[in-house]
Specification:
Helices cover 36% and strands 22% of the residues. Helix 1 crosses helix 9 and helix 7 crosses helix 8. The structure holds alpha-D-ribofuranose. Alpha-D-ribofuranose binds next to strand 2, helix 1, strand 8 and helix 9.
């Protein structure tokens, strides 16, 4: 069988992570514990997630020509990811994220996007050949919308399926939503896109379908993931684990979903596979260090009750 091909167009960061007893409020200092510097960024996390699960992955992003940029590219290459279409920015530093993780595993993140924020439609066009040959194109919103839209147009032009993970939360025009095959918001992102604060997940999913999205997979943290489409709505329950750090769990989910779909799994099965990958990712500190291999996910699924 041919290896599933996934192209990720998106961001990469270096994450500076501190474990804290609780997230401090404004003006407050808390003494934390362990510090970890790890590879991160929503796009790069999703690329690594798919690669560890066996997909052939191409990452299209923009890095600063600095120590962090070089390390990021090396890491991605070490994961077997094709980095030929990374653009190097001579004037802007690579992206950095400052992350605090509470004792319960919840996080608070501030991102300095750096070169990610300079990504252009022309950067994406250079990767047209890779996008055209992909089974799935995976996008997020941590790079400028113009670059995301260009990737979407190229994929559409070549009949390639597109998953858009609308993170971090940002409003999107209907023309974008209509072009996406699968939208994967969390509850907060869904509320913003559906313009329905405080509504039930199923209502928000219906509102997104009414705006022209073909399928929605809404992640609901410990409750699971809601699949919504023309055939109805279904909840796929989450797996129970003891979370240490939830940073990157959404990225693990999206990378695994893209890999599962590219492998030809039916959507419900791909969502269950993605949920297992995300659950495992919460049990280890750091975004990319926590992403499991295909063997680990298969073993975890085999341990679960039918
Ligand atoms: O989704 C988690 C990621 O968000 C972190 O790795 C951080 O870099 C930010 O992009």
């Amino acid at each position: 069988m041919q290896q599933p091909r996934v192209v990720v167009v998106g961001s990469s960061n270096t994450d500076m992570v501190v474990k804290v007893p609780r997230i401090p409020g404004p003006g407050e200092t808390v003494l934390g514990g362990r510090f970890v510097m790890a590879a991160g960024g929503k796009g790069a996390n999703q690329a690594v997630a798919a690669a560890r699960l066996g997909a052939e992955v191409t990452f299209v992003g923009r890095l600063g020509r600095d120590m962090f940029g070089r390390q990021t590219e090396e890491n991605l290459r070490r994961e077997g990811i094709d980095t030929r279409f990374i653009a190097w920015d001579e004037a802007t530093p690579s992206g950095i994220a400052l992350i605090m993780v509470s004792a319960e595993g919840e996080n608070s993140i501030a991102v300095a996007p750096g070169a990610n924020g300079e990504m252009t439609p022309a950067d994406v066009e250079r990767a047209e050949e890779a996008i055209a040959a992909a089974d799935v194109l995976l996008l997020q919103l941590e790079v400028p919308l113009a670059a995301v839209r260009r990737a979407l147009d190229i994929a559409r032009g070549h009949g390639v399926r597109v998953i858009l993970n609308p993170a971090p939360a940002a409003p999107l025009p209907d023309e974008v939503l209509r072009e996406v095959d699968l939208l994967t918001p969390n509850q907060h992102e869904a509320a913003l896109l559906a313009r329905m604060q405080g509504a039930e997940p199923a209502e928000m999913a219906q509102a997104l379908l009414a705006r022209g999205v073909r399928m929605v997979v809404m992640t609901l943290g410990g409750r699971g993931a809601l699949i919504a489409g023309p055939e109805g709505i279904e909840l796929v329950p989450a797996f129970r684990v003891q979370p240490v750090d939830t940073t990157g769990a959404g990225d693990a989910f999206n990378g695994a979903l893209a890999c599962g779909m590219a492998q030809g799994r039916p959507l419900r099965e791909a969502v269950r596979y993605a949920s297992a990958t995300a659950a495992l990712a919460t049990t280890v500190m750091g975004a990319q260090p926590s992403l499991p291999t295909a063997e680990r996910v298969e073993a975890f699924l085999a341990e679960q009750r039918p």
